[in-house]
Design a protein that fits this description.
7-stranded mixed beta sheet; alpha/beta; binds NADP nicotinamide-adenine-dinucleotide phosphate; 332 residues; globular; 24% helix; 9 helices
Length: 332
């Protein structure tokens, strides 16, 4: 028998989740039945979408029942397998959930080649909800050009960091918006973008006027709310505004503050387009190829923040709203 420790939904959040919405349970797992594999989870991806599944609202990612394991993507190692496609020792990616182990159909897992790239990079730079999202938003949907002045919000988070790096690699002028001086230093000194704006202490509009006097060509927005309006009022003619997410609104999804300055789109012949990374499946292979090549060439500098212990999963999830730097993961 293998002991699985898992984090479950104990109470629905009112607004943003709090620590008392979660509890940690234990269960015993047996040996895999035919077609199943037993997997030890090694890294869990902490993603903003997880928080949208905890309420009653049936959003894009659905609403999970009370008492169920919090959903999450992750990577792990196969302990034992009763399926021909997986063997003990294989490293796999899949919908692991917030737990230390799982017994599930082998078809749920994707076997990883870890000879060149560590498994956890499949959550970060190569991760569907991080690097692939940044690539699809910047390149496929946003049509990134070398001559662009690009703005990224939540720039020091996971998706934002890779979005900044992709735009920098393309040769664009990149401005990142994030909360606090440490994040501005990270953006400028570690990610090497042109400038960071500290939305908690700076006047974002005045800083954008200085840094982008001809306007913003491409805005990759992760935050929504007032930051979206501030940038909308400074878009260049034919700008592209890409709605990746709106984390400032996730605590009150039934009462979202929409953009007030959307008429700038008409005045400047601009577009605003949202996307979900899973919809753009035909872009995934080219994205994976480019991201893998740039990773091999040492072009990414995104930090990884690994929180140790499955019981700290709720604390890690809450960090998405209080601020952290780079790609956040839990090692159970
Ligand atoms: P993340 O960026 O690693 O973490 C979220 C960041 O958002 C935090 O570090 C925090 O940084 C910032 N933030 C939180 N509350 C804020 C607020 N009220 N105002 C301004 N900034 C705030 O998380 P992630 O998982 O990579 O997700 C980033 C965004 O991408 C989310 O909006 C998510 O929904 C979206 N996303 C979309 C897709 C898609 O398919 N479209 C896929 C994956 C993710 P500060 O300290 O700087 O505030």
């Amino acid at each position: 028998m293998t002991t699985n420790r898992k984090v479950v939904l104990a109470a629905r959040p009112e607004g943003l989740p709090t620590l008392d919405c979660f509890s940690t349970d234990e269960e015993q797992l047996g040996e895999p039945a035919e077609g199943q594999a037993l997997v030890e989870v090694q890294h869990i991806s902490i993603d903003a979408w997880i928080s949208t599944t905890l309420g009653t609202r049936d959003g894009h990612h659905g609403s999970i029942p009370l008492g169920s394991t919090i959903p999450a993507l992750g990577v792990g190692r196969v302990i034992s397998s009763a399926a021909p496609e997986l063997a003990a020792g294989d490293e796999v990616f899949g919908p692991m959930g917030s737990q230390s182990h799982l017994l599930a159909p082998a078809a749920m897992f994707q076997k990883l080649d870890v000879s060149q790239i560590p498994a956890r990079s499949h959550l970060g730079v190569l991760g569907l909800t991080t690097g692939m999202t940044a690539y699809v938003g910047m390149i496929t949907v946003g049509g990134l050009r070398e001559t662009d002045t690009v703005v990224v919000s939540a720039a020091a988070g996971a998706t934002g960091s890779v979005a900044c790096e992709i735009a920098r690699i393309a040769g664009a002028q990149v401005i990142g918006i994030a909360g606090g001086p440490d994040k501005v230093r990270y953006l400028e000194d570690e990610l090497g973008i042109a400038a960071g704006i500290d939305y908690k202490n700076d006047d974002i509009g005045a800083r954008l006027d200085e840094l982008a006097p001809d306007g913003v060509n491409l805005f990759f927005d992760n935050v929504g709310g007032t930051i979206l309006d501030t940038v909308l009022s400074r878009i260049a003619p034919q700008a592209r505004v890409v709605i990746c997410g709106a984390i400032s609104q996730y605590g009150h999804m039934d009462d979202i503050s929409g953009p007030k300055l959307y008429l700038r789109l008409a005045e400047r012949n601009a577009t605003m387009r949202g996307f979900t990374v899973d919809y753009w499946s035909e872009a995934h292979e080219p994205a994976r190829e480019d991201l893998t090549r740039w990773l091999g060439e040492g072009k990414f500098h995104i930090r990884e923040h690994v929180v140790e212990g499955i019981e700290r999963f709720p604390e890690a999830l809450l960090m998405l709203f209080s601020g952290h730097i780079g790609k956040l993961m839990v090692a159970p």
